[in-house]
Specification:
This protein folds into 5 domains: about 130 residues, Response regulator (Rossmann fold), CATH 3.40.50; about 150 residues, GAF domain (Beta-Lactamase); about 100 residues, Beta-Lactamase, CATH 3.30.450; about 70 residues, Helix Hairpins; about 140 residues, 2-Layer Sandwich (Heat Shock Protein 90). Helices cover about 45% and strands about 25% of the residues. The chain contains 19 helices and 25 strands. The strands form 6 sheets. Strands 10-9-8-13-12-11 form a 6-stranded antiparallel beta sheet, with helices on both faces. The mean pLDDT is about 85.
Length: about 650
Amino acid sequence: MTAPLALLLLEDNEADACFIMEMLQKADDPLWQITCAQRLSTALKLLSQTQFDVALLDLSLPDSQGLDTLVRVREAAPNLPIIVLTGMEDRQVSLQALSQGAQDCLVKGEITAGILTRVIRYAIERGRILQQLQAEVAERQRSEQTLRLIVEGTASVTGEEFFRSLVRSLSTALNVRYALVSGCIDAPPTRVCTYAFWQGNEFGENTEYDLYGTPCEQVFSGQGCQYFPEGVQALFPLEKELVEMEAESYAGIPLLSSGGDLLGHLAVLDDKVFGDEPRHTAILEIFAARAAAEIERQQAEEALRISQEKFSKAFSSSPSAITISTLKEGRYIEVNESCLQMLGYSHAEMLGSSAVELKIWVDPEAREAMKRSIQEDGRVANLEIEFRKKSGEVFLGLMSAEVIQLEDEPCLLAVTTDITLLKEATKALERLAEIGELASMIVHEIRNPLTTLLLGLNAFKRLELPAQYQTYRSLALDEGERLQRLLNQILLYAKPQNLAQSKLELNHFVTEMLGTLREMPAAAGKHLRFTGTPSPIQILADPDKLKQVVINLVTNAFEAVEEADEINISLHTEEAHRVCLQVQNGGAPIPADVLPKLTKPFVTTKSSGTGLGLAIVKRIVEAHGGELRIESSAAVGTTVTVQLPAR
């Protein structure tokens, strides 16, 4: 059953009022619920208490006359459809009434039941349409205002100010108290930092915070907009800031990169209920898209800045000469300091000039050949080219280059190293290698006749010789054997250190050698102590060559001390997977001017030494990837450290 329509009849003439009510009651459709009022004050009171569907209004009342009556009723009920009742037909009054918001005007003497019901029905329908149009206009105005805020908040600024403008405009567009935008600190996100935070009437301080236990956590774990329309404090009791903010509602949306990666989030909070209306979602999505685009832009800008900074540092600090020149003419666009030092020109002299004009290439045809190769392959590598300095001096350079595009112009990025000294060093090494081979040949040539001489001298031991000749024979044998040892050491030093490496546990390795070391002639009357490590130390080494190192170092230590003195062997580990074997002895310290020379061939502090022992030890240690250090002072004596890579 259709509900009756509530009608307010404002008429001070009882006869007219009864006549109108009788006509309405005779009508079958619609049903009426009629309320009568004879004075404007009574009608205004009723309008403040009751919702009416339509009003019939007489302009002549005891307490109000003319159009003022209509105006007062319209002010009390702006959306109420009003039909004006007049005693006579007056076109001017009717037009004025319509201009003041009346839906229609009727002359009391011309009213019939059909006309009255039809006019009322049309008035109600026109009122409904008018309200709908007004709502649409208001919504359009809100949309235009929102778009204006979006444009103002996201188009006029960039950088840090962009986010401040964005959150303030978002707060206004959604009519909420708080708005913030954040960026992720880690991945997957557990912590974020705010880029801007609007808190009603001012900006708050940017801060970092954990996502756990906050509504923001739901934004990152969910999809799309997340709404908590009311009671957000009770939903997230761990988040004390919600209490301080007096937050009742929350809405948030993730910020996604063009590749779908999480960049941060956008959120609003309010101290009143905030629902998930389509309009709200659309606004959040628009602002989120702009915020994500700005974050991506800033990240790309920062990455470009870092890349340019790295290139600039590498360009300026490179020890090699780096140049950027046009491919067609070879005019220098930029050169680094190493290039200026290598060629002897100033920055101003080179920029804008070409290599041909400066006559830097000794052979101009070589540049043309290089240019053709680059045009075919896009790059060249390790070309040995002769260049000319400003002074006229010619040197050999090793150049690599490739084509790059600068402002749509093909340019040449070239890196050149002066290899004059390298070539000289290579030749010197080749000469040293030849000398080494020659030394090996000489050693072999001397050892053969020396062996024969020693055989003969040893044979003379069976002869009965005068005492004087026996002395000569002993001296000759001693010197021959010393010469043979020297030749063996020279051969050992000269030949490459080829290692037969295997796994060794150093504590066990040194412990096994202690018996042999204590029985050496140099160990007579002296003490040898070994201090290992509580845990095993594994290394990869050649056992025979490492024994040679230990024997040589311990022998030197024994020979440097007096009887009853102590020699210490110790092991310990260092950072970066290094292990140290140390041999320490007391005695007189090694002079400071001699210490750096001890590992050079034929340098020794012993009267009978060859000066090759420590040189051979150093070569063996370095072949293992290790380092040999010698320290000496009057306080602690001499300590030799062999540092090796641990396994």
